[in-house]
UniProtKB/TrEMBL annotation:
The gene is nudJ. It comes from Deefgea tanakiae. CDD domains: NUDIX_Hydrolase (cd03675). Its cofactor is Mg(2+). Keywords: Hydrolase, Magnesium. This is Phosphatase NudJ. One of its GO terms (molecular function) is hydrolase activity. The keyword Hydrolase applies.
Amino acid sequence: MWKPNATVAAVIERDGRFLMVEERINGELKLNQPAGHVEFGESIVAACARETREETAYHFTPTAFQGLYQWTVPGTDLTYLRFAFTGELGEHDESLVLGLADEGIEAAVWLTRDELVARAEQHRSPLILACVDDYLAGKSYPLAILQMFDEVQKFDGLVK
């Protein structure tokens, strides 16, 4: 049975540079935003904060929903639904070791859009530049647009 993968990503900019992650996948160095899968019982907002901390050692508080992106890996039925967020970057925690929770993470790096374009062959997916460009275009929505229910709630006989 086909199911898309629910993932989150943090689009974090500071002084014209974006926080990215260098990770080794099948022996190749790839670039991605701090991103990952939503775990069972976890909200997408909490998943974004957790993934950012695990992959970069920065604390991150999502404050806006940037958008929902869908991508199918060419030649496969592997599809990702990416929930992207912007927000407030907190302190860097020097005690956190990158790669403990996510195997393959090598470094957190800050890159300009031009530097990202120059390294396009290393992008893990086309969603990276799409998210950066949407951020630069000012696309964002209040977090209130998202709703999470811990259990099915019924409303007037319909599942809400």
